[in-house]
């Protein structure tokens, strides 16, 4: 996010300083979902934690479960909407290592939901 308070991408003064991010964090901590999907437009890949560091979560069972679930989603999506996905397979892996310009960022919803919620 931007540090300019006038920017549409202003990140806030500190973590959860904005009412929208506080409300979503509170909801997530109460609800404790089994799965969270953070949708972005642009690159065609499915990102898993982490975005703030260039590594995957240490728990191999979590990683395997995430990859399995995401592969099933890709398979179902390809059957339902074959013309939408361009090319062959959809890359799956840590946000910090995917795409032409990997999404390396701190304070993301993806990392928060994995680590805290």
Automatic annotation (TrEMBL):
PROSITE patterns per UniProt: PEPTIDASE_M14
Peptidase M14 domain residues: 1-117
Protein family membership: Belongs to the peptidase M14 family.
Alphabetical list of InterPro entries matching this protein: Peptidase_M14 (IPR000834)
Highest taxon listed in the record's lineage: Eukaryota
Cellular component GO terms, alphabetical: extracellular space
Annotated coiled-coil segments of the chain: none
Annotated source species: Haptolina ericina
Cofactors demanded by this protein: Zn(2+)
One Gene Ontology biological process: proteolysis
Transmembrane domains' residue ranges: none
GO molecular function: metallocarboxypeptidase activity; zinc ion binding
Name of protein: Peptidase M14 domain-containing protein
């Amino acid at each position: 996010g931007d540090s300019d308070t006038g920017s549409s991408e202003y990140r806030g003064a500190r973590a959860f300083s904005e009412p929208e991010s506080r409300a979503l964090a509170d909801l997530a901590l109460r609800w404790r979902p089994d799965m969270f999907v953070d949708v972005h437009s642009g690159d065609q890949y499915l990102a898993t934690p982490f975005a703030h560091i260039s590594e995957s979560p240490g728990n191999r069972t979590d990683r395997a479960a995430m990859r399995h679930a995401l592969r099933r989603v890709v398979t179902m999506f390809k059957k339902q909407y074959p013309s939408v996905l361009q090319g062959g397979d959809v890359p799956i892996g840590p946000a910090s290592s995917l795409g032409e310009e990997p999404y390396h960022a701190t304070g993301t919803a993806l990392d928060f939901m994995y680590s805290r919620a």
